[in-house]
Specification:
Elements (H helix, E strand, L loop, with lengths): L1 E6 L4 H15 L3 E6 L5 E2 L5 E3 L1 H15 L3 E4 L11 H14 L3 E4 L7 H13 L6 E4 L16 E4 L4 H9 L2 H7 L1 H18 L4 E8 L5
Parallel strand pairs: 1-2, 1-6, 2-5, 6-7
Antiparallel strand pairs: 3-4, 7-9, 8-9
Helix pairs in contact: 1-2, 1-5, 2-5, 3-4, 5-7
Bound molecules: zinc ion.
Length: 213
């Protein structure tokens, strides 16, 4: 199976579905990560959070901990991701080239403009595809204003450690959000795991899925 995970920023994908991607790699599936931004970023007060090269390195290091070697960054501007024909075409070209069986992206009712536009652009670009899933928003990778409906669960008990390690590779984010961030990620995974009777899980909302009998 080929799985395409699309996120606005480096760390969004790892936070929301890193355990699932690492498990997919362990089970010999092909995984591609697509980051819509990918350059360095600044705070609202113009303080540099990470430089361009730090951003690239953090994304590559985090992906490689999950076992993912296929990572593409589109280098749109952080905080200014458009819902535009350009971005939709960029994503569509990658979908045509990679030909995924499953696509993961942000929850559409997120509150971060980059996440919302990435989600909408992905939905437009994948309009002729089946098996589209929205990953659960979790800070700082997303906060919803409409309840997220967990519909598809993925047992990540075997890969929770890789997920947490991949987030530690995002050094600038860890510095910004502290260890409480990782504790919250682990707690969420534990909570979702408890809902399905396993140690740790991630969950997704289904946009469209195909019953393959
Ligand atoms: Zn983000």
């Amino acid at each position: 199976m080929r799985i395409l995970a699309i996120g606005a920023h480096g760390d969004d994908i790892e936070l929301a579905c890193g355990g699932t991607l690492a498990k997919a790699i362990n089970n010999q599936h092909e995984v591609k990560m697509l980051v819509v931004t990918g350059k360095g970023s600044k705070s609202h007060k113009d303080v540099i959070i990470r430089t361009d090269s730090e951003a690239r390195k953090e994304v590559e290091d985090a992906a490689s901990i999950l076992g993912v070697t296929d990572v593409t960054s589109l280098n749109y501007d952080d905080t200014n991701v458009p819902y535009s024909i350009d971005l939709i075409s960029d994503i569509e070209n990658i979908i045509i080239e990679f030909n995924p069986d499953m696509i993961f992206t942000h929850f559409v009712f997120d509150t971060h403009q980059d996440h919302i536009r990435t989600a909408h652009s992905t939905l437009s670009a994948s309009r002729r595809r089946n098996n589209i899933y929205l990953y659960e928003p979790i800070n700082p990778s997303g906060q919803g204003y409409v309840a997220f409906r967990p519909q598809l669960y993925s047992d990540i008990s075997s890969t929770i450690e890789k997920k947490i390690s991949s987030l530690q590779a995002h050094k600038s984010q860890l510095k910004k959000y502290s260890n409480k961030w990782l504790e919250a990620v682990e707690a969420r995974a534990k909570y979702r795991g408890y809902e399905i009777g396993v140690d740790y899980a991630e969950c997704f909302e289904i946009v469209r899925t195909e019953l393959d009998l």
